[in-house]
Amino acid sequence: MQHSIISAIAKQCEKQPDAYALVGGRHTLSYQELENAIAQISVLLHTFPAKKIALALDNSPLWAVLDLAGLASDKIIIPLPFFFSGEQIAHSIRDAGITCILTDQPDLYQETLAASGIEAEASYTHNISGQEITEIRLSGIAAKTLPAGTVKVTYTSGTTGHPKGVCLSADALYNVAGSLLTATNGTPSDRHVSVLPLATLLENLAGVYVPLLAGATCHLLPLADVGLSGSSGLDVKKMLGTLIECQASTTILTPQLLHAQVAAIEAGHPVPASLRFVAIGGASVSERLLQRAQVLGIPVYEGYGLSECASVVSLNTESDRLIGSVGKPLPHAKVKFSGDGEILVSGATLLGYTDGEPVPEFWPTGDIGHLDDNGFLHLTGRKKSIFITSFGRNVSPEWVERELTLHPAIAQAAVFGEARPYNVAVIVPRGNASETAVNQAIDEANHVLPDYAQVKYWLPATAPFLPQNGQLTANGRLKREAILAQYQTAIEKFFS
Q: Do residues 352 and 445 share a domain?
């Protein structure tokens, strides 16, 4: 069903050709204009000698059109996030055998390529829908055969330094989008506002494909316009103001963005009253944060997924919701568990990684969890993250870290305690939070944690945990080995 998403857009065009499909900072496309643009750009892409086309653009309607035109023209689209380091970008290019990059920041990419020893054979400028983009053709890149049926490669940072290329089929993308459309009760009256980069699979699929399947409007504004800058800069008031101005009915947030919005609204900022469904994903969320959001009238629904499963596996919905769970598995997904409690998923899983290794029918997620009697999925931690204290207690550090980062004084936390009598945390204070404020935050978290999970000592991080310094994945998960490697000497002093 390679063209199912394109066919669905054509059907919406028949129903409502003049309705807004994509709204950007400078350009707006109706469904008729979107269908025309996909057709025109498909013709352009057919002239490209490369089968694989990397997208390195800021959020905009053009990003979505290029992505959809790639699907329509039998090209393989490979989004390259701007939050990747130069080393990660170079690895992705060589790993997937990319020989063509489309970007709206050619100078930055030329510098990155030159620094990585990748030769740009030629560059061409195209004016598409009033926006100028540059096509960079690369030479000296070894050919790479990807699994048959691949239409998209999404790079996930994982837990190692090199991102892994996840190869996905059109069927997988369409099936997950269809499940999400049903789960979220999407309608043509919806107005989705993207605040995450479209290069992340969750926003690409749930923020573009799902609204278009519903006949709704996608607001795809430059990230700076929604309050994001660089890898971690956030103007939460601008973000909330954009949601209000666009009359957003749906949006997708990471736990960190939700925390920032909740804090701003508790401090007096107006709630975006038009919101009806705010999906929370990317990392685990504290129940207390979800409850605070609910009290403020923010309609938050936690979900769970991973790139290897074409994004979303389970989701809380308006009719089926249980705070503390990640919702019920979506219709396309089947879930079972290994003997040690690891979640195994089939349905809409990856065709393989770019290395071509065969994949099992049920994908091992690396997450530990269970289904309750009512069918809700619960996560208890990462299989590789769980450590055992010297008293024989199992501790999921994500659980402790969720409680710590609920406090306004703590922006990030990494907890360690393997084979130790107590736990130590590396803390990134929020803003100018004082040592006293951090101590108070840890005391408050310890009050709701059992003794074996409490934090006894802490040390301040020298810098935030970021994708750029190799200490955070793209979707917000800590790279614990990298953090421990940097702070191990300081941590050991607490046990000496």
A: no
The span from the CA of 153 to the CA of 167, in Å, is 5
Beta strands in 284-398 (DSSP E): 300-306, 311-315, 328-329, 334-337, 342-346, 352-353, 363-371, 377-382, 387-388, 394-395
User: Does 403 lie in the same domain as 327?
Assistant: no
d(Cα 198, Cα 79) in Å, to the nearest integer? 8
Judge whether 381 lies within some domain. no
Q: Which residue has the tokens 């008031």?
A: 237
Pair type for strands 423-429 and 455-460: parallel
Contact 313, 305 (CB under 8 A): yes
Pair 124, 162 in one domain: yes
Distances in whole angstroms, Cα of residue 349 to Cα of each of 36, 373, 473: 32, 26, 20
Torsions phi, psi of 365, nearest 5? -75, -20
Strands 363-371 and 342-346: antiparallel
DSSP bridge partners of 192: 218, 250
- Token duo for residue 82: 């701007």
Domain that residue 477 falls in: 387-493
**pLDDT tens across 179-190, in order?**
999 999 999 999
Into how many domains does the chain fold? 2
Residue 32 within any structural domain of the chain = yes
Which has more confidence, 419 or 415?
415
Distance between CA atoms of residues 299 and 314, nearest Å: 17
The residue from 311, 337, 371 where one domain ends is: 371
CATH number assigned to the domain comprising residue 264: 3.40.50.12780
Residues forming a β-bridge with 76: 52
pLDDT tens, residue by residue, 380-399:
888 888 888 877 787 889 88
Query: Both tokens of residue 258?
Result: 């939700």
Residue 84 binned pLDDT confidence (cut-offs 50, 70, 90): confident
Helix (H, G, I), strand (E, B) or coil at 387: strand
pLDDT for the residue 284: 74
